[in-house]
Write a structure and sequence with these properties.
Order of helices and strands: EHHEHEHHEHEHEHHEEHHHHEEHEEEH
Cofactor: pyridoxal 5'-phosphate
Bound molecules: pyridoxal-5'-phosphate
CATH superfamily of the largest domain: Type I PLP-dependent aspartate aminotransferase-like (Major domain)
Domain Aromatic amino acid beta-eliminating lyase/threonine aldolase: 4-288
Family: Belongs to the threonine aldolase family.
Number of domains: 2
Radius of gyration: 20 Å
Protein name: Threonine aldolase
Number of helices: 15
Keywords: Pyridoxal phosphate
Helix content: 40-55%
Strand order of the largest sheet: 2-8-7-6-5-3-4
Oligomer: single chain
CATH topology of the largest domain: Aspartate Aminotransferase, domain 2
Length: 339
């Protein structure tokens, strides 16, 4: 039994999901003729109370399309220094959109409305890049699955409105935030101009992300997806997995969160561990004591068939998910106890 806690993307489709995929009705989605894709897009647009949704093969591509929709080359997006769009999309912001990122030195991937406003370049000062977008990430990945305070998101929206900036949400793990904070999709749909959500993380699908937004902005989305190479054909098989996951895998995220908290409690009792970051959702980030060798620590876990990943600066990460069973959880907790 291998306990793989590197990411919530390591899950495999469940039997029910595979069944739904096998029996999916499909068509050519480049012609917008795939009924399953159309149903998924409509369902998500409705869930968020927004006009349109568009399926993408990956979350990175959905975010990259959003950056392109909101900006022109030479302009700037404001985001946190931990942001996925800045750190983990291969430099796509500059490659695809010709834009730069103004990084905010936030806390666990989150910042305040004051920090956002202070990061806006004066539009008349033509020496600096024109600020056109504020991008938020909820939950924050590098920030350890932290959830934003919704009131702060509202304040940032006011800043965006005042300065006529776009407002994008990288909601790869928004599902986790909704469950953890008892929030709903509609309140996010009201706030943001565009929202990307992942089906391939906590929801357990093999692929897929969806970009949701209002008509005016989304008009260009189809063309950008085509340019990025994301137009696919009978991709309703993936949409069927997404529809299945929305029905069956959303509420259960609370289980992942509970397990993550229990792992955190056990870690914080270990002499090798210096600090465990607060756990709000399914991500556990912790730091080893200075006298503990990271490689040795990982090797020892490996011997126990436990896989986790390093985040740099002495930080390690575990992520709970659909395929992390109760049995694995018991084994992990006892392994940590006897470590
Ligand atoms: C995983 C993730 C994405 C998208 O990643 P893909 O691997 O391209 O699907 C985007 N943003 C955040 C915060 C993520 O964690």
């Amino acid at each position: 039994m291998i306990i793989d806690l590197r990411s919530d993307t390591v899950t495999k489709p469940t039997k029910g999901m595979l069944e739904a995929m096998l029996t999916a009705e499909v068509g050519d989605d480049v012609y917008k003729e795939d009924p399953s894709i159309n149903a998924l897009e409509k369902r998500l647009a409705d869930m968020f109370g927004m006009d349109e949704a568009l399926f993408f093969p990956s979350g990175s591509m959905a975010n990259q399309a959003a950056l392109k929709l909101h900006t022109n080359p030479g302009e700037q997006v404001i985001c946190d220094k931990y942001a996925h769009i800045y750190n983990y999309e291969g430099g796509g912001a500059s490659f695809n959109s010709g834009i730069s990122c103004k990084l905010i030195d936030g806390h666990r991937g989150m910042f305040t409305a004051e920090q956002a406003e202070a990061s806006i370049n004066p539009p008349d000062f033509y020496h600096s890049p024109l600020t056109s977008l504020i991008a938020i990430e909820n939950t924050t990945n590098k920030g350890g699955g932290a959830c934003w305070d919704f009131q702060e998101l509202k304040k940032i929206k006011k800043v965006a409105n005042k300065h006529q900036l776009g407002y994008h949400l990288d909601g790869a793990r928004l599902w986790n935030a909704l469950i953890a904070k008892d929030e709903n999709t509609k309140q996010y749909g009201e706030l943001f101009d565009t929202i990307s959500v992942c089906l391939s993380k906590g929801l357990g699908c093999p692929m897929g992300s969806v970009l949701i937004g209002n008509k005016e902005l989304m008009q260009g989305a189809l063309r950008i997806r085509k340019i990025l190479g994301g137009g696919m054909r009978q991709v309703g098989f993936a949409a069927a997995a997404g529809l299945y996951a929305l029905d069956h895998h959303l509420e259960r995220l609370a289980e992942d969160h509970k397990k993550a908290k229990e792992i955190g409690e056990e870690l914080s009792k270990m002499s090798a561990v210096k600090v465990v970051e607060p756990i709000e959702t399914n991500i556990v980030i912790f730091e080893l004591n200075d006298n503990i060798d990271e490689t040795q620590f990982l090797n020892k876990l490996n011997e126990k068939h436990i896989k986790i990943i390093v985040m740099g600066s002495n930080k390690l990460r575990m992520v709970t998910h659909l395929d992390y069973t109760d049995q694995m959880h018991d084994k992990l907790l006892s392994s940590l106890k006897d470590f």
